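Lay summary

Proteins are chains of building blocks that fold into shapes. Our project writes down both the chain and a compact code for its shape. Here are two examples, one after the other.
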Amino acid sequence: MYYPVPKIVRDFVVANRKLWRGKKVFVIATMGLFSGDGSGMLGRLLKSYGAEVTGGLHLKMPDSIADEKALKRPLDKNKELVRQAGQNNVP
């Protein structure tokens, strides 16, 4: 699957491209049902501006798409996702 970096994030990275040179970056991408390649795509973009990408992580979180019923979960399921995400140890 292919999912682009959100426009607001891409615009920020591009507008601040000089900032990334020589910086160590660990990319975290949130996901709903599936992850695509969000952290990989952002990592490659940052690398093209000179960042040293140390790794990436897709973190399952409640979905933020409000108009798609197929992606909705009950509140208790969303709370459980957030609780489980809090147990992940990110380096």
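And here is the second example, written the same way.
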Amino acid sequence: MKPIKVAVIGVGNCASSLVQGVAHYRSNNSSQGLIHDRIGGYGAGDVEFVLGVDVDARKVGKDIAEAIFAAPNNTTVFFPQVPATGAKVMMGKVLDGVAEHMTTAGEKGFIVADAPEATREGIVAALKQSGAEVLLNFLPVGSEDATEFYMECALEAGVAVVNCMPVFIASRPEWERRFAEKRIPIVGDDIKAQIGATIVHRVLSSLFGARGVQVEKTYQLNTGGNTDFMNMLDRQRLGSKKTSKTEAVQAMLATRLEDENIHVGPSDYVPWQKDNKLCFLRLEGNQWGNVPMNLELRLSVEDSPNSAACVMDAIRCCKVALERGEGGALIGPSAYFCKHPPQQFNDDTAAQMVEEYITEAAIAAE
């Protein structure tokens, strides 16, 4: 089958894990670590990266396969010999894509490239020239203006979108309508991890309700040492992120909690953790006879590889939608793979919706 051509906005840790993973699965026939082996006939190795966009001088101008290992990326290197893609990382448009404190942090932050910033026309032309079919948005949390800029480019270029970060596009009716009108598929918003803080928190919240325990209070505290956590030291950039993560949990509770009784969000930046993310969860509730109980959990994961399986499935769902001529938000895939989809469903229901979507795709591919 012809490869799925993918463009990446933000060649950071998440892009690094994804590109390494494609090379890994292309070099062997394993399905270990995948949520779905094939979707619409496409495997995890059937992705071709055709364009990268970044604003860091250490990445701009390099082949994507080289740029993913450039500082300040610090995720696990599990496939060091990624073959050259033949696709360069071009200079993007900064806007609010880089927090002010990041530009003065030396090797721990961003060194903005000296090259002239891209224009909307330039990005659209690059997308068309590359043949990109799916655009991944890996911009940092808080990049509201930058995300909307690239969404305009995707709409003009006719490219499907996987919105991996918490600027609300697929879940905002005015944006989703524009994708639907142009018959351009989008999966979003804010990608879940394969086994991450949000999905674990949701499952435990559902479990409490299913077993008749009323959740009274809950928190989720996260620490990490990658640029995502460093970026989020600017608390003004956290509005949509906290909303996304909090609503993902609230949707699974039998009774919605008051704001003062739920706290979901990043806690602090710990440089030596690098791309390792620590999550501390606590749920307090009352069971039989109104007797109190609580549960505490500590989760340790490599943050960026943890999102790659969901992104890979979302890419392939977008490709299937393109082949079918579908546009707008893909409801089932968005609900299953993202924290803030247009419609929230419990995870079992969302999983079933994805299975049905994949089954339809398999039948169509025969």
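What can we say about the second shape? The radius of gyration is 20 Å.
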